[in-house]
Amino acid sequence: MSAHSHTHTHGHYHGHGHSHGLVDASIKRSRAGLRAVGWALLILGLTALAQLVIFVATDSVALLADLVHNFGDAATAIPLGVAFALRSGRAERWAGLAVVFAIFVSGCVAGYEAILRLVEPRDVDHLGALAAAGVVGFAGNWVAALVRTRAGRRLHSPALIADGDHARADAYVSLAVVASAAVVAVGLPIADPLIGLAITVVILRITWQSWKTIRTGHAHARRQP
Question: For residue 183, is pLDDT > 80?
Fold first, then answer.
């Protein structure tokens, strides 16, 4: 009787401790994910606001394409944050799809504005400020990419990894804004909307790559026992 009682008690506490460890791991993952998402939101939000101020002065469609994309990128933090707060794998996969959709919409907006500027050309002013905006976009996206990718790999989150890849590609897209300032400075203003179109193509390519990352991660999760 005593042995049975001891075995039952030991089993009870062992099971409870194991369950408690799972809850703790889930909470830790949730907090780490929220922390990464929060930092990325802050970094990209400030980046987009800085670019918005410069866009008002320069009226560059290449910069507009970049800042619209950066605002959309920052907004993807919302569904990702909700997913981590809920500690739900399904919500995280849906958040990943929301990320892909946000990238696609920003690409459509950028493409529309670039085509509109080709039809109705306008002068681009304050080229030094325009180049500075591109540098700001590059720096902001690069830092956000580091935050997201490292957290995504550590937490095994395809959605966060996709968002990190997205931000890293956006960093290079921002350098196109610097190129736009350079070509306009040498007397080729038509290059500004053309670079805007090139950025659109890159954004759509990012959309496809991010979709593949989310789909692969989803398929892997479904195969898990």
Answer: yes
Residues 184 and 124 sit within 8 Å (Cβ to Cβ): yes
Q: Quick check: 145 and 167 in contact, CB under 8 A?
A: yes
Spatial distance between the Cα atoms of 124 and 82, rounded to a whole number of angstroms: 40
How many CB atoms lie under 10 A from the CB of residue 42? 14
Domains of the chain: 33-219 (1.20.1510)
Helix locations, the chain, DSSP H = 2-58, 61-75, 77-86, 89-119, 127-155, 158-185, 191-223
- In the block, tokens 């300032």 appear at 181
**What phi and psi values does residue 190 have, to the nearest 5 degrees?**
-65, -20
| 208-215 mean pLDDT | 80
Helix-then-strand count for the chain, H and E: 7, 0
Q: Is the dihedral of CA 62, 65, 71, 72 positive or negative?
A: negative
Q: Which of 12-26, 67-81, 187-201 has the lowest mean pLDDT?
A: 12-26
> What tokens does 154 get?
């550590």
- Provide the residue type at 131 as one letter: A
Task: For residues 46 and 42, give the distance between their C-alpha atoms in angstroms, rounded to a whole number.
Answer: 6
Residues 180-207 have a mean pLDDT of 83
Query: Model's pTM, two decimal places?
Result: 0.67
Average per-residue pLDDT for the chain: 77
